[in-house]
Design brief:
The complex is a heterodimer of chains A (about 325) and B (about 325).
Chain A: H1 2-25, E1 34-39, H2 45-60, E2 64-69, H3 74-87, E3 91-94, H4 102-110, E4 115-118, E5 128-131, H5 134-148, E6 152-158, H6 164-178, E7 182-189, H7 198-211, E8 220-223, H8 226-238, E9 247-249, H9 255-262, E10 267-272, H10 275-290, E11 299-301, E12 305-307
Parallel strand pairs in A: 1-2, 1-3, 3-4, 4-5, 5-11, 6-7, 6-8, 8-9, 9-10
Antiparallel strand pairs in A: 10-12
Helix pairs in contact in A: 2-10, 3-4, 5-6, 7-8
Chain B: H1 2-24, H2 32-41, H3 43-57, H4 65-81, H5 86-111, H6 115-134, E1 139-140, H7 146-153, E2 155-161, E3 164-169, H8 170-187, H9 190-200, H10 202-207, H11 212-238, E4 240-241, H12 248-261, H13 271-290, H14 295-322
Antiparallel strand pairs in B: 1-4, 2-3
Helix pairs in contact in B: 1-13, 1-14, 3-8, 3-11, 3-12, 3-13, 4-5, 4-6, 4-11, 4-12, 5-6, 5-11, 7-11, 8-9, 9-11, 12-13
The chains are: A alpha/beta (about 325), B mainly alpha (about 325).
């Protein structure tokens, strides 16, 4: 065991030495900023998209990126931040709630190593959090509904005010619908989400359909995320009222929602976050910080995109 | 030569790992601050591994420690949200750990279910309980008292190093204290000697008047409480509680004890050997992260190290036996 470990160590030392020699020969060592991307969520699709986009942009910038996946272990994120701080990296990128990794952020702050968040949450110790704007996403879908129904008719809202990122979406939709005197919000429903949100939303929607039997009495369903929109769609189809022209919108554009939108039924629109844009913008933001710029805004929004039957697939 | 390798192979391997990291990371690895970081990073695993050592001395093991750690963190966090004081919430969480451990003990020792089956079943039960109590959500933010999270960020001031204060983290202090307690229990008490007797030959121990059933049962109390302590330490470190956050502890703790067993004379589990095993895992994580080795490659390497150590140990024993 002793021999093999030593041998492995030696071979790695040789490889590293050769690497450094090559770098040194090209005098390119200065450009190679060392950046650590530390995430517990690499196996989640969204995270993969933005980490890959970050790596691609970092390559263009000539950075040496080390992606560390702690596989769901948040305490290990703190440990790995401490390790890369000891190693002396130039910058750290995280995508976990800053409230959970305070000890790691303190270590980075003490060593003056900038931290940038990708969809992480705001914190004074993070130079900037790069994410999507929930207010914007809600504005896009609620205005879509207002325009589709000609600014008049009954609208059902599905919201969830207990979860802050979703609460901000509801606030905007409230304001938009209020601005049209002829739009009447029939109900503002908070579905039970313990089963994922589809089943209970469907049950609530079925009750509302029963309470409003006249065709045209419900013009639209605005949902703060995709699951209630899918539940409402099921209820409308089960009640045989899919030909009344009820317009449904969601937010997030998850695969199931995209399928429903592409099918061309009542579920007409959702909004997709630009995960790749979040990744490349995070790299550009870190580059600005490393360049000595003091960022005025500590949250940077990447534009989102409306998804309809035109671009759902 | 074979005997020498068998006794000191793992130790020399550990030394080699440290030397390699020291050479490759001349400025950042062998520093007091980095070593303090490592001790803090492995503090939770240390507590679980030394507690696991107690049941492994008897020849059993406990697969439920990871989910018990999660459950203890969730219990404390839920009580925090209900307005319980920090000491009260921690006491209840530790009580849950003790009861959970003793349940394992009864299943294995009194009812006679294989430890693998019994603790696999309680693993899923404790994990399920954590999900039920938390509703599957992470509990964090204002629900967690400031003092609880601050505990894991502060420590015992030991003076200053350069311009920065030199602090021994409380998590490290706690791990050291619990290691000392388990050391006394296993190495310096008759209780511990009886556990080793059972592990050596349960039938002989029984004939010699050792209360095998009762002692095996109580050994599980240590893993239950140890897992709960580690779960609370984890929750303090991340200032939050999640129903899955202890999952990684179980396999790593068993790995650490096995690594430690390759260090001891008769291949028995020993407390200090388990701590060395934990340190090997922690040092590998720290050093390989600093060397920017891919995190997936790191896992393969850690597994390889365990296999190498255990293989050398097994081959050495075979060679000695043949003579």
């Amino acid at each position: 065991m002793t021999y093999s470990i030593t041998r492995r160590g030696l071979s790695r030392a040789l490889v590293l030495a050769a690497g450094f020699a090559a770098l040194g020969g090209g005098a390119a060592l200065a450009a190679g900023e060392k950046i650590a991307v530390i995430t517990p969520y690499l196996s989640q699709p969204g995270t993969q998209f933005y980490v890959e986009a970050f790596e691609a942009r970092a390559k263009e910038l000539g950075w040496e990126v080390n992606v560390i996946d702690t596989q769901g272990d948040v305490a290990a994120v703190i440990s790995r931040i401490e390790d890369v701080v000891a190693q002396g990296v130039n910058g750290i990128v995280i995508n976990v709630d800053p409230a959970q990794i305070g000890a790691g952020l303190d270590a980075a702050a003490a060593a003056n190593i900038p931290v940038v968040g990708m969809d992480a949450g705001a914190d004074p110790r993070i130079k900037a959090n790069v994410t999507s704007n929930g207010y914007e996403m809600a504005a896009v879908t609620s205005v879509y509904i207002a325009n589709r129904i000609g600014g008049a008719g009954g609208v059902v809202m599905f919201t969830f005010d207990a979860f802050p990122p979703v609460q901000v979406r509801g606030v905007i939709a409230d304001a938009v619908f209020k601005n049209y005197p002829d739009i009447k919000v029939l109900d503002r429903i908070t579905p039970d989400v313990s089963d994922g949100g589809i089943a209970d939303s469907r049950a609530k929607m079925e009750a509302l359909l029963a309470a409003n039997p006249e065709p045209g009495s419900i013009k639209a369903v605005w949902a703060a995320w995709d699951q209630p929109a899918l539940g409402a769609l099921q209820a409308i189809e089960a009640a045989g009222r899919q030909n009344e022209g009820i317009v449904i919108t969601g937010i997030d554009a998850n695969p199931q929602a995209r399928d429903a939108i592409a099918a061309g039924g009542n579920f007409e629109a959702s909004v997709a976050q630009d995960f790749k844009g979040i990744g490349s913008t995070a790299a550009d933001t870190l580059a600005r910080v490393l360049g000595g710029e003091v960022l005025k805004a500590n949250v940077i929004y990447v534009p989102t995109q409306l998804v309809t039957s035109v671009n759902a697939k | 030569m074979v005997r020498f390798l068998r006794h000191y192979g793992t130790l020399m391997g550990m030394a080699a790992i440290i030397v390699v990291f020291w050479v490759l990371l001349p400025d950042t690895f062998m520093t007091a601050r980095n070593w303090l970081n490592i001790t803090q990073q492995v503090s939770m695993l240390t507590v679980v591994a030394v507690a696991m050592t107690v049941v492994m001395v008897v020849g059993d093991f406990d697969l439920s420690v990871g989910s018990m750690a999660s459950l203890a963190g969730i219990v404390a966090a839920v009580l925090f949200t209900l307005g319980f004081s920090v000491p009260a919430a921690l006491a209840v969480a530790l009580g849950v750990g003790l009861v959970g451990g003793l349940v394992n003990g009864v299943l294995v020792s009194v009812i006679g279910i294989l430890p693998f089956v019994a603790t696999l079943a309680t693993l899923t039960m404790y994990s399920g309980a954590a999900f039920i109590l938390s509703g599957g959500k992470t509990i964090f933010g204002r629900d967690i008292p400031q003092a609880f999270g601050d505990f894991a960020k502060s420590g015992l001031p030991l003076g200053s190093l350069g311009d920065k204060p030199f602090v021994l983290p409380w998590l490290t202090v706690l791990a050291l204290a619990l290691t000392a307690v388990i050391f006394v229990v296993l190495e310096l008490s008759t209780y511990g000697r009886r556990l080793y007797a059972i592990g050596g030959n349960a039938e002989a121990a029984r004939l010699a008047g050792v209360r095998v059933t009762f002692l095996r049962l109580t050994a599980y109390g240590f893993t239950g409480v140890g897992a709960a302590v580690a779960g609370l330490m984890y929750a303090a470190r991340v200032a939050s509680a999640n129903p899955t956050q202890g999952e990684g502890l179980m396999l790593n703790a068993i790995a650490a004890v096995f690594l430690g067993m390759t260090l001891t004379r008769h291949g028995q589990p020993r407390v200090l050997a388990s701590v060395l095993g934990v340190l090997v895992l922690g040092i590998m994580d720290n050093g390989l992260t600093q060397l920017q080795v891919d995190s997936y490659v790191r896992e393969v390497l850690v597994g390889l190290i365990i296999l190498l150590a255990v293989s050398i140990s097994a081959l050495g024993r075979k060679a000695i036996g043949r003579r």
